[in-house]
Amino acid sequence: MSKFKIHNLETVPTESKEMLEASAKVNGFIPNLHAVLAESPQIFEAYQTLHKLFSQSSFNKDELTVVWQTINVEHKCNYCVPAHTAIAHMMNVDSAITEALRNSTTLPTEKLQVLHETTLALVRNRGYISNEEAEKFYAVGYENRQLLDIVLGLSQKVISNYTNHLAKTPVDKAFENFVWKKEVTA
């Protein structure tokens, strides 16, 4: 049971109201994640800022999706996996990519597979990768900037994934067609 509140425009703390109003305007509804984050204006602003910056990083839409969903699946985020599946559909990402990520199967290109493996290594090893993993990453055309961009994406996803774990955030109606579940033992 969660003691976290899913805020609306009447219950939101004053410092978060403008951000929640903007979220409703942009999305056409208030995503439950944003409604939970609104409890703390600082984390809500940090999440939104990191999302904007990561979306503007050196990665294209397929690569953004690979980083986001690799982290979401590894963190077993039952809210973010469906949300980012819906987002990927809106971004016209090939469903072969989203399904491979959701089901932990091989991605359609070597470059995306290496990005997935590198992201997974960074998550699992808390920022460390082996020389072999780094060389494989560089061999497919990535550079140091992309390693740092993965760290940026991970920063965003830690906020959302961990918040969703704590709050047990229910999946929004807009994402229900993409429900994904992993049992979590704490």
Describe the structure.
With 186 residues, the chain is mostly helical. The chain has a domain of 120 residues: Up-down Bundle (AhpD-like), CATH 1.20.1290. It is 63% helix and 0% strand. It has nine helices and no strands. Helix 4 runs antiparallel to helix 5 and helix 7 packs across helix 9. The longest helix is centred in the last third of the chain and has 24 residues.
Rg measurement, Å: 17 Å
CATH superfamily of the domain at 59-178: AhpD-like
Secondary-structure arrangement, i.e. CATH architecture of the domain at 59-178:
Up-down Bundle
Q: What's the SSE pattern?
A: HHHHHHHHH
Quick recap of the structure?
It contains nine helices and no strands. It has helices spanning 14-27, 32-37, 41-55, 61-74, 80-90, 95-103, 110-124, 131-139, 144-167.
Please render the helix and strand layout as text.
Blueprint: H1 14-27, H2 32-37, H3 41-55, H4 61-74, H5 80-90, H6 95-103, H7 110-124, H8 131-139, H9 144-167
Helix pairs in contact: 3-9, 4-5, 4-6, 4-7, 4-9, 7-8, 7-9
Feature tags:
186 residues; mainly alpha; AhpD-like
